[in-house]
Amino acid sequence: QVQLVESGGGLVHPGGSLRLSCAVSGITFADHDLNWYRQAPGTERDLVASISKSGFTYVKDSVKGRFTVSRDDVKNTLFLDVNNLRPEDTAVYYCSYYQPPRDYWGQGTQVTVSS
Questions:
Q1: What is the pLDDT of residues 51-83, one digit of tens each?
Q2: Is the peptide bond before 100 cis (omega within 30 degrees of 0)?
């Protein structure tokens, strides 16, 4: 059974940092491109970062230089290092991957940035 389990969210002050993790089981992890999305209240889910199975990365322009995506193919874990956080980064962060015919999602981890 496929499972994606995010962790590492929390409440931080502006300028703070977190490491989000996504533990994946039930698939051959190294064979998949992986994604981080986020969703703030009242908005659509939005792609934040991706990493291909070969390690090529994409990061959304608005978080470039602050967010870093990485993966550990031995531990079957996806990471998102989020630094210099801003109030507008407040959202639920989800990891996902696509395997035809559908996307697979975790349950999300809440990141709240507030003074």
A1: 999 999 999 999 999 999 999 999 999 999 999
A2: no
- Assign 1 to helix, strand or coil: coil
Residues in contact with 54: Cβ distance below 8 Å, sequence separation at least 6, in sequence order: none
Distance, CA of 71 to CA of 49 (rounded, Å):
12
Tokens of 2: 């496929």
Q: Is 74 helix (H, G, I), strand (E, B) or coil?
A: coil
CB 20 within 8 A of CB 83: no
Provide the H-helix boundaries in the chain: none
Quickly list DSSP for 96-114: EEEETTEEEE---EEEEE-
| Closest CA relative to residue 86, chosen from 67, 107, 60, 59 | 67
